[in-house]
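Batch queue: ligand-bound targets. Current item pairs a single chain with zinc ion. No template structures supplied; prediction is de novo from sequence plus SMILES. Inputs echoed for audit trail.
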Amino acid sequence: MTVEIHEALTMHLIREDGDEDLCLAMYAPSTGALRDSALIREACLPLDGEREVHGNATVTGRYVLRVAREARNRGLGVVILHSHPRGRGWQELSRLDADAEASYAHMIAQVTGLPLIGMTFAGIDETWSARRWSAEGKHSAAESVRVVGARLRVSWNERLVPAPSAMPSQLRTVSAWGDRTQASIARLRVLVVGSGSVGMDVAIRLAATGIQKVGVMDFDVVEEVNRDRLVAATRRDARRQFPKVDVAGRACVNAATAADFEFQRHFLNVTTPEGQSAALDYDVIFSCVDRPWARAILNQIAYTDLIPVIDGGIGIDTFDTGEMRNATYRTHVVRPGRPCLQCNGQLDPAEVSRDRLGLFDDPTYIEKAGQPEVGKQNVTMLSASVMASQLALFVSLVAAPSKFGEPGPLRFSLTTHRLQHVEATTNPACIYEHLVARGDRRVPLAQTVATSPAAGLGPIRTLIGLVAPYLVGGRVKGTHLR
Ligand SMILES: [Zn+2]
Ligand SMILES: [Zn+2]
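Prediction returned. Tokens below.
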């Protein structure tokens, strides 16, 4: 859920008189390759007389039916939530709670066609717990509950996903942010999309930090021309055209400090349905790709599926003589509450559609358009700065030093070495940012193979049509920041 929904729910659930309280909400399913999530779209607080509070709160059948009908009309599911104001940590289900939730599970599944989700909020340390009910009244516990804002707060089901014990090799890391933060960060599933000069280094450092599950997604192979930036790749890797994802895997396994490190290999393109589904299994995604279409996919799931995306890129300006004029890098966390890549001037919908048509792989188009190839100029020493900034944003997001979360979009200019906060605002017509918690009803941007140039362009046309009037002068300067 977003932090706004979390606040609306807890404001209701934590009462001044200290009694338990209860309410309902609606959710959208988000289906990954291996993981299902329920994204809370909207809190549905009770109207007068729709619930009774007397130590153990109860809802009326009228309330449940009202919300179930509305959920059905909107294609959503129902969540039933209650509080344990004096509870701490993940709450196991008492017999009384289980009976109450089970009594609605069948009716809600019948009305909405989606399973009932039950949630409990522990008031002392603000921990959420959750479970899914089958229509037959059997429940299975969730692994975690994520609240996405300037900070990513995760409540962990310690029984299913126990905190890993800190290793001697992690002593310096743990002494920087403490056991609790380390235990939470180590359990996050983190995906790096794009295993180039930035992505590969990001992945290695995630593994070294002690994160247990690091995924890397890339469908490219190493070539000699990559070796000035892929510092983990060898001459032999280039000679035998080794997949970049396997170079990343080897380096991550060597660097990992977690006792049971798992490298998740995705030799896939995130613009395919398989690539997109795999991405939905993760808690945080690093966007280290240079193609507009791939970034559009990640830009969308940051909102539709509430997965924070840490994106960054570098643009190098050269004089006509070929010498360097300036280098600018920009980094930002894309999430509900922050401008999307399009509003932030980092993604041009026209380029997304050109990429989708395969024009960026067509040498005659590139020549005719007179545009530099995306990501053509790069310097490994500067990629390290982009990586550093993206990782620092990750630390702000998940460890939040002094309770400050991620700071909003950043821009660094190499000539003057000035770091600025970018004043990007949301375009009122932005459609990405209106798709918060859409889940599986996201705009279908991913596609298996481009059959004909016009195939599957419907949604893209819609995107362009809605946004085009607000694009001044077509290409936004800095689009090629990679
Ligand atoms: Zn209870
Ligand atoms: Zn936007």
